[in-house]
Structure formats: C-alpha cells, structure tokens
Specification:
This protein is mainly alpha-helical. The chain is built from 14 helices and 3 strands. The two termini are 28 Å apart.
C-alpha cells in the first residue's frame, strides 16, 4: 500500500494530520447543528423540548470524544497484541440483545441491549472492530494468503460469524455493510480474485433469498422499484425525503425553517436527517457537506497510503471506507438512489451507538496519521544526519 506514495512534508506539528482533525471537527459541528434544526419540530410534536434530540446527542459527545481519544492515542502495537480479546468482547456484546432482561426488541428487531431506559446497539461497535481484526490478521498472514485454507478461511469465518449474528438480529443493512467492509479488507490484502468470485456466487443468492423471504425487506425493495405505486405505504419515507431535498433550491429555506421535514419524513432525526439538511441549506449546504466529507476522506486515505506498515495502512483504508460507505449509502437512500435502509449518517443522525462507533473509527484514522508523521520525521532525521 505504500509503494509510490512518498511523503513530501510532515502531516502536522501536533503529532498527526491537523487537516484531518480540523475537517472532522467541522463535520461534527455542522452535524450537531443540522440535527438540532432537523429534529426541533419533531421533538415538539412528541411533547418534548425542541432541543430533546440534539441535547441527547450532545450528551453522547462526551463518551464519543473519549472513544476518539482512545483510538487516536492508544499504541497500535498494543491493539495488535490485544486484538483477540477485542474481537471476543465484540462478539459477547453482539449476543447480548438476545439475552433476557437486558435484550431489547423493537419492531421485530433484536438489535439493542440496555436497562433503565438506556440502549446500546453492539453491531455499530462491531464495524470498527472487524476492520481492526482483518487489518491485523491479513497483514500478519500476508505471505500465506495464497493458501486459502490456512490464510483466508480463518478470518473469513470470523467475518461471516459476525454477519450471521447481525442478520439474526434482523438488521440486514448492517450485515450487508459488514460484508462489504470485509470484502474491501480482503481486496486490499491482495487475496486472489477467485476468492471474490466464490464469495459472490454464494453471497449474492443468499442476499437475494434473505430479501425475498422477508416481507419487510421485500416491501422496501418494491417501494424502490415502483415508488409511485403506493407512496402512502411502500415508499412514503423516501418520497417525502426526495421532495424535501428538491425544495431546498440554491440557498435553502434557512436553518429551522424547513416545513416538509415536519409533514412527510418520519424519523427525520435519524435515517433521513440529510433530507432536512438539504431542505434548509439548499444546494450550497449540500455542496459544503460533500466538500467536507470529500476532504476528510482524502486525508484519511492519504494517511493510509503513507502509513509505515501494512497493518496501519490496511486499518486506515478500512476505517475510511467504513465512514465513506455509510455516508454514501445514507445519502443515496435519502435521495431515492437505493432502497431504504437503517444506516445512520455519521456524526449527523441521532444515536449514541453510531456516534461512539464512528468516533472510534475517526480516532484510529488520526492515530495512523500520527504514525505516518513519526515515520516521516524519522526518515528526515536520518537524511539530515
């Protein structure tokens, strides 16, 4: 991953890439502002304070900042030594939603556990843990990956087991995202294309079967394929989201001034928060949104290409893909480009579990940029000696 990418100058004087960090702060800032504006009216309609969702998100910023700091400053050598314990802990958390008393089932999905009114969705935390594990094991087994049985099958079993548990929680969209992330990690590790052909020949029919045998998933696919057939039932969420996006015009209606978000977009504070942002800030706000994300992901992939070893390079690439894919899928759902899913918009959608997960991923990205900066400084010192 490092070939051909020479570092021309330090990534930053603060021990990492300040541009990566600065763009992240801006994304978080507009995310909280966008959530407050999007959810204000909906919160009032529920009989709560207009700042209800934004305040809850703000409270979650404290543990999310702690997770970012953990990912940013924990020695990555320690992470590699403890990866087995991390993976085991992540699997234990994944099965807690099935446990009596603490397991929580909503709308037929068993995705959460908690008590005293507090909930946590462990599949969100499994996303960065899976990337960490695959980056570690695939870089460690780099010379053995031609041996499918000993080099590829063991990490594949771990990934498939995680996907199956999430599927059992009735969370198809997260399971699909985990599967895509796993395939990205195998791809950057230069696993044979025959492996991907075999996975596709098995995985695609199983994914189709999973959709066809679930009335809820099939309903969403039909709503995507025929959005005008029954908008009040099949695709009312996406239809309302698209109307809100289109109504923003060039400059938008102004923060807090959106109207369609109140009438036609259920759960506007979570899955469809982008629609409210587009309605209120218009094309200009959408351009800022994509500009910030593009810049952040460029710096993230840059850190991956400049990382001093394969583990750091693979890990940063996977974390960047995790954040990028999740952002892209959420926006595509809101704009009607793909069937509706439950994928939250990183740093925008309400939800503490997602915020903690994406903050941890961003922290590891900054950690890799710190490693790249140290490696550059070491090379420069040697050159000047």
């Amino acid at each position: 991953m490092n070939g051909g990418f020479a570092m021309e100058r330090p990534l930053g004087r603060i021990g990492g890439d300040p541009m990566l960090l600065g763009s992240l702060f801006l994304i978080v800032g507009i995310g909280v502002a966008g959530l407050y504006s999007a959810s204000y009216g909906y919160a009032i309609s529920l009989g709560k304070s207009g700042s209800y969702f934004a305040l809850r998100q703000f409270i979650w910023l404290a543990p999310a900042a702690a997770m970012f700091a953990l990912g940013a400053f924990v020695p990555l050598g320690f992470v590699q030594r403890m990866i087995g314990a991390f993976v085991l802990g992540a699997f234990v958390l994944l099965v807690l939603p099935f446990m009596p008393v603490i397991g929580i089932t909503k709308n037929g999905a068993s995705r959460w556990f908690g008590f005293a009114g507090q909930m946590f969705q462990p599949s969100e935390l499994f996303k960065p843990v899976l990337v960490l594990y695959l980056a570690h094991i695939l870089s460690k087994k780099a010379e053995k990956l031609a041996d499918v049985v000993n080099g590829v099958i063991p990490p594949l079993i771990v990934a498939v087991l995680g996907v199956l548990i999430v599927l059992a929680q009735n969370d198809f969209s997260t399971a699909l995202l985990l599967g895509i992330l796993a395939m990205v990690m195998f791809w950057i590790a230069d696993v044979s294309m025959a492996f991907f052909a075999a996975i596709a020949s098995i995985g695609l029919p199983l994914a189709a079967l999973s959709v066809l045998t679930s009335g809820y998933r099939l309903k969403r696919v039909l709503g995507f394929l025929a959005p005008g057939y029954d908008p009040a039932d099949l695709s009312y969420q996406v239809t309302g989201s698209m109307r809100a996006i289109g109504s923003g015009g060039l400059w938008g209606k102004g923060l807090g001034q959106g109207t369609l978000k109140l009438r036609s977009i259920p759960l506007v504070q979570s899955d469809f928060v982008f629609a409210a942002w587009a309605e209120e800030t218009g094309f200009a706000g959408v351009a800022v949104f994509f500009g910030l994300w593009a810049f952040f992901l460029w710096r993230a992939f840059r850190a991956s290409f400049m990382a001093p070893d394969a583990f750091r390079s693979h890990m940063a690439f996977g974390m960047a893909c995790y954040l990028g894919f999740q952002t892209l899928v959420n926006v595509m759902v809101a704009s009607g480009a793909v069937p509706a899913t439950g994928i939250p918009l990183p740093f925008f959608s309400a939800g503490g579990s997602s915020l903690i997960s994406v903050s941890l991923a961003a922290g590891f990205l900054f950690n890799v940029s710190r490693s790249a900066a140290r490696a550059y400084d070491g090379e420069r010192n040697e050159a000047n000696a």
